[in-house]
Amino acid sequence: xxxxxxxxxxxxxxxxxxxxxxxxxxxxxxxxxxxxxxxxxxxxxxxxxxxxxxxxxxxxxxxxxxxxxxxxxxxxxxxxxxxxxxxxxxxxxxxxxxxxxxxxxxxxxxxxxxxxxxxxxxxxxxxxxxxxxxxxxxxxxxxxxxxxxxxxxxxxxxxxxxxxxxxxxxxxxxxxxxxxxxxxxxxxxxxxxxxxxxxxxxxxxxxxxxxxxxxxxxxxxxxxxxxxxxxxxxxxxxxxxxxxxxxxxxxxxxxxxxxxxxxxxxxxxxxxxxxxxxxxxxxxxxxxxxxxxxxxxxxxxxxxxxxxxxxxxxxxxxxxxxxxxxxxxxxxxxxxxxxxxxxxxxxxxxxxxxxxxxxxxxxxxxxxxxxxxxxxxxxxxxxxxxxxxxxxxxxxxxxxxxxxxxxxxxxxxxxxxxxxxxxx
Length: 424
Ligand code: PGA
Ligand code: ZN
Known about the structure:
It contains 13 helices and 17 strands. It has helices at 66-80, 88-99, 109-126, 131-135, 175-197, 217-231, 265-278, 293-303, 317-323, 336-339, 342-354, 372-379, 393-409; strands at 6-15, 21-29, 33-38, 141-142, 144-145, 147-151, 164-168, 238-242, 249-250, 255-258, 261-263, 281-285, 306-309, 331-334, 358-362, 384-386, 414-415. The strands form 4 sheets. The protein has a 9-stranded mixed sheet, covered by helices on one side. It has a 3-stranded antiparallel sheet with strand order 1-2-3. A 3-stranded antiparallel sheet has the order 9-10-11. Zinc ion (ZN) binds next to loops. Residues 42-45, 163, 242, 244, 310, 362, 364-365 line the site of 2-phosphoglycolic acid.
């Protein structure tokens, strides 16, 4: 069998969509094939994520990643040179051993993640397969995009407490149709927010949704529903939130502050029940704070919809092993850099499927133009993707890659649609 030896690894500092530095890694195979990948970065992060390494120096307000780059060039890279690039698990194990910490804080999760996913891309080039196919010869499911059209929380400067208000075009026939629906709703929404809140209302947040100066959840939902009705696609669309509730939770009082009112876990659950009665909401991410297990368990049991754990799981296999059997949520938000290596992230996906979970593959709020998650979402047949609104290039890149994959798969492409939790 032909060997695909890693012959070089080089990292550099580049900028993400917020103009914060991030890590880009090149992995060379047999001195002739290159796999390049960028590392995204979160802002609304979970406490248990693997830790990115930042320089803390004056340049870039402390956000530089020269140390992480150096760790790739001088430590991680030289150690994987000579290994077979298709040995993903072995390479990832080596990266973890070199770091030696439980949260990748020594060499930096951004350093490890960059090498890990650049290795996967280089391997796919070496064996001359698209990355999604290299990961899985049965890859064929095109995801339903959860389109984050209105932004709040930590990813904007408005007063909305929930972070993401999304449409979920499960009634489309194909991924391509889902995107035309998303575009139509987004255009109607732009008209509505400008009319109601002035021109500035059409400015966008970090993930490309409108950062309209709306204060209340129901007011935001009403704008979205009106846009959907005007688009003529209401029968094909349901709704979803990322509440990112960790960020409106007070650890000391154990209460949530929503629209200026303090709520207990039970009261917030009742609030969700009312919302679900008013709108066809089918998916909610992080409805409670990351360690409010009671909240997650009750939400999963009592709301009867998809409950996704983002900060709750941090794509961490150990947390999934521990928390999934408790009934804390029924879906995983999958972000490879939350855990730091591809093989651990794939373990997290497997573990979740075996619990009967759905999986939503996700961008980070700090993204680059690298569309690698589009290959990952099809590669694991996840059926759901969250990658922001399309009016920013780093978001559009992911959708554009999915158009290519849909075309490549041709008649074998299956849009997850209403079976978004289990598209087989
Ligand atoms: P992050 O947030 O990428 O800033 O962590 C996105 C999310 O909470 O899903
Ligand atoms: Zn989230």
